[in-house]
C-alpha cells in the first residue's frame, strides 16, 4: 500500500490493518461510515479525529482504495469463518436453561440442578 510522508504520521499498519496513528481505530471502520453516507467531517467528529488526521485518512483511502477493499473483504471473510466456527462449537450451550453462563461447567451444573428439581416435583405429585 502507498504510504506517503503525510500518511506516515496518520496511518500505522498493524496486525489489525491500517490504523489512525495514536489510536486503535482501523481505516476499515472509517470506510464503513463513509460508505454509509457519513460526511468526512462528521466521521472525524464522531471519532474525535483532527481535521489533519481525517485529511490523511481520506488521502490514504483514495491512494489505496482497491487494495483496502480487497484486504477488508478478506477480513470480513475470516470474521464470518470464525463466527460460523464458534456458533457450531457452542450450539449445545444454547440449549441449556437460563442465561448463558460465563463458564460451561456452571451451565452443566445448572442443567443437572434443573433435572433434580423436576424429578423431585414429579415425586411430590405422585
Please explain how this structure is put together:
This protein has 126 residues and is mainly alpha-helical. The protein is built from five helices and two strands. The chain folds into two domains: 5-89, Winged helix-like DNA-binding domain superfamily/Winged helix DNA-binding domain (Arc Repressor Mutant, subunit A), CATH 1.10.10; 96-125. The protein has a two-stranded antiparallel sheet with strand order 1-2. A hairpin with a 2-residue loop joins strand 1 (11-14) and strand 2 (17-20). The relative contact order is 0.10. The model has no long low-confidence stretch (mean pLDDT 85).
Draw up the topology in text.
Elements lengths: L4 H6 E4 L2 E4 L6 H9 L4 H7 L4 H39 L14 H22 L1
Antiparallel strand pairs: 1-2
Name its key features:
2 domains; single chain; 6% strand; 126 residues; Arc Repressor Mutant, subunit A; 2 strands; mainly alpha; 5 helices
Secondary-structure content class: mainly alpha
CATH topology call of the largest domain: Arc Repressor Mutant, subunit A
CATH class of the largest domain: Mainly Alpha
Strands, total number: 2
Approximate helicity band: 55-70%
Let me know the average pLDDT. 85
Our count of domains comes out at: 2
What is the succession of H and E elements?
HEEHHHH
List segments where confidence is low: pLDDT < 50 over at least 5 consecutive residues: none
* Ends distance: 75 Å
Largest beta-sheet details:
2 strands, antiparallel
